[in-house]
Specification:
By secondary structure, the chain is an alpha/beta fold. It has two domains: 123 residues, Response regulator (Rossmann fold, 3-Layer(aba) Sandwich), CATH 3.40.50; 93 residues, Arc Repressor Mutant, subunit A, CATH 1.10.10. It has eight helices and twelve strands. It has a five-stranded parallel β-sheet with strand order 2-1-3-4-5, with helices on both faces. The chain has a four-stranded antiparallel β-sheet with strand order 6-7-8-9, sandwiched between helices. Helix 2 runs parallel beside helix 3, helix 6 crosses helix 7 and helix 6 crosses helix 8. The two termini are 21 Å apart. The protein binds calcium ion. The site of calcium ion has 5 residues, from loops. Calcium ion binds next to loops.
Length: 222
C-alpha cells in the first residue's frame, strides 16, 4: 500500500483516479487547488503525487518547482493536455518523473505509478543498505519483505530463498545451487521442493519476478 496524493481540480478525473487507486489497495487523497496540493505533497508519508497542470491558486509547474526547491524527491507524475507537448517537456525539465496525456485510461496511469513506486523503493533500499531487485526489498535486520512498498510476510524458508535470489539477481541459479544454499545438502536432489517454493515466492512477489530458464534453473529479475 502506498499513499498517493492527487492534485487535480476536475472532480470527475480526481475521483476516478482515487477510486482506481483505492481498489488497488492504496490510500488516495485529493487536493483540488495548488496551494493545498503543495502543503500536502510536502507532508511526511506521501509516496507519489499525481499532478495536474491547470490548477487554481498555484499551477502545477510552480507547485513542482517549489516542491523540488524544498528538497522533496517524491515521485511526481504530471497530467497534461494531449496537445501540450511544450507543457510536457517543461514538466519533465522541472523535475517531474513522468507524464500522462489527458484523456488517459486508468490502466496506463496505474502501470506508470507502479513503475515509479518500484524505482523509488529500489532507491530507498540502496540508501538503507537493504537487499533489493525488481521492486522487492528485503530488510536483512528485520527479515521483512516489501513489494512496491507493500509489506508481505515470508516464512523462514521463503526468506532464505528470496535472499539467495536477491543476492544473485539477474543470474541463473540451478535447482541444485538453490537446494544447496537454502536447504543444505541433506535433501534428495530429485525433490521438487525448490519448484514448490519458487511458486510460493511468485505468488507473493508477482509471477514476473522469477523467470524459469529452461533446462538451467531460475532467475530473479532486476
Ligand atoms: Ca485542471
Amino acid at each position: 500500500m502506498a499513499r498517493i496524493l492527487i492534485v487535480e481540480d476536475e472532480e470527475r478525473i480526481a475521483s476516478f483516479v482515487a477510486k482506481g487507486l483505492t481498489a488497488e489497495g492504496h490510500r488516495a487523497t485529493v487536493a483540488t487547488d495548488g496551494r493545498t496540493g503543495l502543503d500536502e505533497a510536502l507532508a511526511d508519508g506521501v509516496d507519489l503525487v499525481v499532478l495536474d497542470i491547470g490548477l487554481p491558486d498555484l499551477d502545477g509547474f510552480t507547485l513542482l518547482a517549489q516542491l523540488r526547491a524544498q528538497g522533496s524527491r517524491v515521485p511526481v507524475i504530471v497530467l497534461t493536455a494531449r496537445d501540450s507537448v511544450t507543457d510536457t517537456v517543461s514538466a519533465l525539465e522541472g523535475g517531474a518523473d513522468d507524464y500522462m496525456a489527458k484523456p488517459f485510461r486508468y490502466a496506463e496511469l496505474s502501470a506508470r505509478i507502479k513503475l515509479r513506486l518500484r524505482q523509488a523503493a529500489d532507491r530507498e533500499a540502496e540508501v538503507s543498505g537493504s537487499l533489493t531487485a525488481g521492486g522487492v526489498v528485503l530488510d536483512q535486520r528485520t527479515r521483512r519483505a516489501t513489494v512496491a512498498g507493500r509489506q508481505v510476510d515470508l516464512s523462514a524458508r521463503e526468506y532464505a530463498l528470496a535472499e539467495t535470489f536477491l543476492v544473485n539477481a539477474g543470474q541463473v541459479l540451478s535447482r541444485e545451487q538453490l537446494l544447496d544454499q537454502v536447504w543444505g545438502l541433506d535433501f534428495d536432489p530429485g525433490s521438487n521442493v525448490v519448484d514448490v517454493y519458487v511458486g510460493y515466492l511468485r505468488r507473493k512477489f508477482g509471477a514476473e519476478a522469477i523467470s524459469t530458464v529452461r533446462g538451467m534453473g531460475y532467475r530473479f529479475n532486476r
